[in-house]
Design goal:
Largest sheet: 8 strands, mixed
Shape: globular
Radius of gyration: 19 Å
C-alpha cells in the first residue's frame, strides 16, 4: 500500500503527482455512459423557479467551473437557461469552443445531454472596448435577456473571462437593465490588481465596470479563496456518487496531476471558487428572494462601482451605480448542498 500522507507532504512533485492517482484510486477520467436524468432525484421548488440563470464559464480551464455548473444543473430554484463556454488566455489558452465541448462532456456524464443548451463563446479576448466578439455565447445572453415572455429575474453568472458578457452588453446595451451579473473575479479591495479571471480579458472587465450600468454582484479574490475543500472531502462526498461524481473528481485529479508534472506542489486542498455562483442565485433564503440580507453567513458591502484600470487596480468613486462586493461566503450551505445533490441524484431519491 502507499502512504498517501507521505506522498502529499513532499518528495518529487512529478513523482508525487503520478503516485497521487494511484494513492487516491483509479477512476474513469472521461465521462462514462450515463442513464437519462431522473427528475425524482432533484428537489423541485414548490411553485417553480424564482429566477433564471445563464452560466458563462471557462470550463476547459480550471475545473472549479465544472463543479459549479453541475450544481447549477441540479438546482431548481434558479432555472438554468444556457451554458456559455468562455476562453482562457495567457500561458494555457483555451477557446470558447473547447469550453462548450467540456459543457457537453459534463452533461453527458450527468445523463443530461440536450437538457440545457450550450454555446461557444469567443475564441479571443476583446481588442477594443467598443467592438464586441460576436460569439454564439454572447448572442445567447442577449436573446435570454431580451425575452418578454417571463418576469423571472435573470442572473448572468460569470466564472471566468468577461469576454462574452461584455460583448453581449456591447451588442445590445439595454441588456444592462435586464439582468444582474454575478462575477467571480477581481482583486482584493481597496487596491485591486492582477487577478486570474480579470487577467483573461482586462478590456472586457473594463467594459463591464466602466462603460455599462449592469448591476454587479462581485465575488472577488478575497471572498472566493474562502471556498476551500480537501481532496479527502471530495474523495468521500463527490467521487462515490455516480457518473457525475466520478467525472468531477476525475477532472480535478487530472488538474492536480498536470500541475504536479510542472513541478508544482499541489498539496491536498483546492479552491472551488466558482461555487458561489450557485449559492447566491439558487440558494437564497425562502423569505429573501433577492439575497438583500446576504445568503446565510454570506455577507456583502455595497459601494459605488470603482473605475477599473488596465492592470486591475481600482479607483474609488463617489457617485454612479452601486454594486455588491461579497466579503464572506457561506461555504457550509454551498458545499453541503453540492454533496447532498450529487448523492440524491445518484441514488434517484
Amino acid at each position: 500500500t502507499i502512504d498517501r500522507r507521505k506522498l502529499l507532504k513532499g518528495g518529487g512533485a512529478v513523482g508525487a503527482g503520478i503516485a497521487l492517482t494511484t494513492a487516491i484510486g483509479a477512476m474513469p477520467l472521461e465521462p462514462a455512459s450515463a442513464s437519462p436524468v431522473t427528475r425524482k432525484a432533484r428537489f423541485t421548488t414548490p411553485g417553480g423557479p424564482r429566477s433564471r440563470v445563464i452560466v458563462s464559464n471557462d470550463l476547459a480551464g480550471d475545473p472549479d467551473g465544472l463543479f459549479a455548473t453541475a450544481q447549477a444543473v441540479l438546482s431548481t430554484a434558479a432555472s438554468l437557461q444556457g451554458i456559455v463556454g468562455t476562453l482562457t488566455a495567457g500561458q494555457f489558452p483555451t477557446t470558447g469552443a473547447a469550453a462548450r465541448k467540456k459543457a457537453e462532456e459534463l452533461l453527458n456524464a450527468m445523463g443530461a445531454v440536450g437538457e440545457v443548451p450550450t454555446y461557444a463563446g469567443a475564441s479571443a479576448p476583446l481588442t477594443s472596448r467598443t467592438r464586441p466578439q460576436k460569439s454564439k455565447g454572447a448572442r445567447a445572453i442577449v436573446k435570454e435577456a431580451m425575452r418578454t415572455d417571463t418576469t423571472l429575474p435573470l442572473y448572468v453568472c460569470g466564472g471566468g473571462a468577461l469576454t462574452d458578457i461584455a460583448s453581449a452588453l456591447l451588442l445590445e446595451p439595454s441588456v444592462a437593465s435586464k439582468c444582474t451579473l454575478v462575477w467571480i473575479g477581481g482583486g482584493d479591495y481597496p487596491a485591486g490588481g492582477h487577478e486570474y479571471n480579470f487577467d483573461q480579458d482586462p478590456l472586457a472587465a473594463q467594459v463591464v465596470f466602466n462603460d455599462t450600468s449592469v448591476p454587479i454582484w462581485q465575488v472577488n479574490q478575497h471572498a472566493y479563496v474562502q471556498c476551500l475543500v480537501t481532496l479527502t472531502e471530495l474523495q468521500l462526498k463527490v467521487r462515490p456518487w455516480g457518473n457525475t461524481g466520478q467525472y468531477l473528481y476525475g477532472q480535478l485529479l487530472n488538474q492536480l496531476v498536470t500541475l504536479s508534472k510542472k513541478h508544482f506542489q499541489v498539496g491536498e486542498a483546492y479552491v472551488l471558487g466558482d461555487s458561489p455562483l450557485v449559492l447566491l442565485t439558487a440558494l437564497q433564503n425562502t423569505y429573501d428572494a433577492t439575497g438583500s440580507a446576504g445568503t446565510g453567513t454570506s455577507q456583502f458591502t455595497t459601494m459605488y462601482a470603482p473605475h477599473l484600470n488596465e492592470d486591475g487596480t481600482y479607483v474609488a468613486q463617489s457617485s454612479g451605480r452601486q454594486i455588491r462586493v461579497y466579503t464572506s461566503i457561506d461555504t457550509r450551505v454551498m458545499f453541503e448542498d453540492l454533496f447532498a445533490k450529487l448523492q440524491a441524484y445518484a441514488a434517484g431519491v
